[in-house]
Amino acid sequence: MSSSLATVYIHPSQFPDCVYQNYLDGFFDREIDNRFHYDSVKQSQKWLKIHQAYSPASGNQDCIQTYERCFEATTNHLDNQSQLQLIALGCGGGEKDSRLLSNLLKQERDITCYPVDVSLSLALISARAMEKVAPQSLVKPIVCNLRSARDLIQIIDREEEKRQKIITFFGMIPNFYPDRILPILSEFLNGEDILLFSANLAPGSNYLQGINKILPQYDNELTRDWLITILIDAGVDIDRGKISVEIEPDETQLEISRIAFYFEVEREIEFKLDDRQVQWQAGTRIRLFFSYRYTTTKIQKILGCYGIKVVESWEDKTQQEGVYLCCKEGTKTW
Predict the structure, then answer these.
(1) Domain for residue 6, yes or no?
(2) Phi, psi (deg, nearest 5) at residue 248
(3) Residues 172 and 316 in one domain
(4) Beta bridge partners of 138
(5) For the Histidine-specific methyltransferase SAM-dependent domain, which residue ranges apply (predicted)?
(6) In terms of C-beta density within 10 A (0-12 exposed, 13-18 middle, 19 or more buried), how is residue 240 classed?
(7) Do 195 and 66 reside in the same domain of the chain?
(8) What are the C-alpha distances in Å from 97 to residues 103, 168, 265?
C-alpha cells in the first residue's frame, strides 16, 4: 500500500459480468441492491459524509468508548494468541477495525489483515488506515459481494497457515436481510474464532417508537442525495418522481422492522440500460435502500437461530448502538 502500486484481491462475485447483471436486475426488478450505493468513488465519499454527520459512533465519545470496551475484552481473551487473522467484513472506512487493530498490537502479535468491502474505494481506504496503525502487518484488501461469497473463508484460509480469526461485522447487519447474511457469518466461524458484531438499535422500551425517534438520521438531504445518485448515473429523469421513506416489517422475521427508501414514479419514465428499454409507469415504486433496526434482545434471538452465541454485549448511553462479542454456539472456551 505504501508503494506506487497496491495489490487488491477481487472475488468472482465482483467480476464485471456478474456485477453488471446484478445492477441491471435491480432496475428491472425495481429493487436496487444496497451495495450499488457504494460502488463509485463519488458514492463512497457521499456515504462517508453521512456516516460522519449521523452515525452514533462518529464523534460520540460514549459510543466510541462502547467499542473500546469490546476491543479491550477481546484483547484480554486473546492474551496468549500471537498469530491472528483480522477479517473485516464490510470494512467501510476502516475506523473501527483500525482501533481494534491498535488494541491488539499493544502486545507483540503477528496479524494478517483482510479489509473486505463491496467497494474498491472503501477497501483501499480501510487498508490504508490499517497499514498506518500496523505498518509491519500484512494487509490484503478484498473486494467482494458477501451475499455471493460463501467460499471466501476457504479462500482466505488457503492463503496462509491456519490462525485464529477475529471476524468483524461492524454496522453491516442493518443493510442485509438477516436470513441471507447470518448463515454466511455462521460458516465463517470455527473453533475459537471470534465474531465482533455491531448493530444500530431502536432506543427505549418501545421498539417502533424508538425507530421513529432515530428516523431523522436517515430521512435527510445528505442521504437522499446519496441514494438518488444511482438513478441519475443511469439516466433516470428524477424530476418525474420523488423519494419517500417508511417503516416496514421484515417478511420472515416479523418481530423486526426496517427503514425503507422508495423512488415513487409520478410521471412515466423511460430510459435505456445496455440497449434494453426500462419503463416505469406512474405509481411504480422502486426500492432504493433499506436499513433494519434491532434491540439487543432481538439480536441475541436472531443470532441464536444461526448457531451464533452472544458472549458479551455493550450499548452506548443513547441505546442507539450495540456491540457484541460472539462465538460459535457450543464453543468450550466460552
Answers:
(1) no
(2) -135, 150
(3) yes
(4) 112
(5) 81-326
(6) middle
(7) yes
(8) 10, 8, 40
State the pLDDT at residue 1.
47
Answer yes or no: do 188 and 264 share one domain. Answer: no
Cα–Cα distance for residue pair 43/48, rounded to 1 Å:
9
> Residue 211 pLDDT more than 80?
yes
Chain-centre distance for alpha carbon 72: 22
Same domain, 126 and 88: yes
Domain annotation covers residue 276 = yes
Please state, in angstroms and rounded to a whole number, the distance separating the CA atoms of residues 188 and 271. Answer: 41
Q: Is residue 2 part of a domain?
A: no
pLDDT (mean) for 227-246: 96
CATH at residue 111: 3.40.50.150
Identity (one letter) of the amino acid at 59? Answer: G
Of residues 163, 147, 24, the one with CA closest to residue 90: 147
pLDDT in tens, 128-164: 999 999 999 999 999 999 988 889 988 888 876 678 8
Does residue 305 belong to any structural domain of this protein? yes
Q: Is the pLDDT of residue 288 over 80?
A: yes
Number of domains in the chain: 2
The whole-number pLDDT of residue 32 equals 96
Please state, rounded to an integer, the average pLDDT across all residues of the chain. 91
Question: Residue 254 and residue 256: Cα distance in Å, rounded?
Answer: 5
303 and 180 together in one domain: yes
Is residue 69's pLDDT more than 70?
yes
Which grid coordinates are listed for 262?
A: 422508495
CB-based contact 123:139 (threshold 8 Å): no
3-state SS, one letter per residue, for 88-124: EECCCCCHHHHHHHHHHCCCCCEEEEEEEECCHHHHH
d(CA 118, CA 14): 8
Q: Does residue 62 sit in helix, strand or coil?
A: helix
Distance of alpha carbon 91 from alpha carbon 124, whole angstroms: 10
Judgement on whether residues 228 and 268 belong to the same structural domain of the protein: yes
Q: Is 286 in the same domain as 301?
A: no
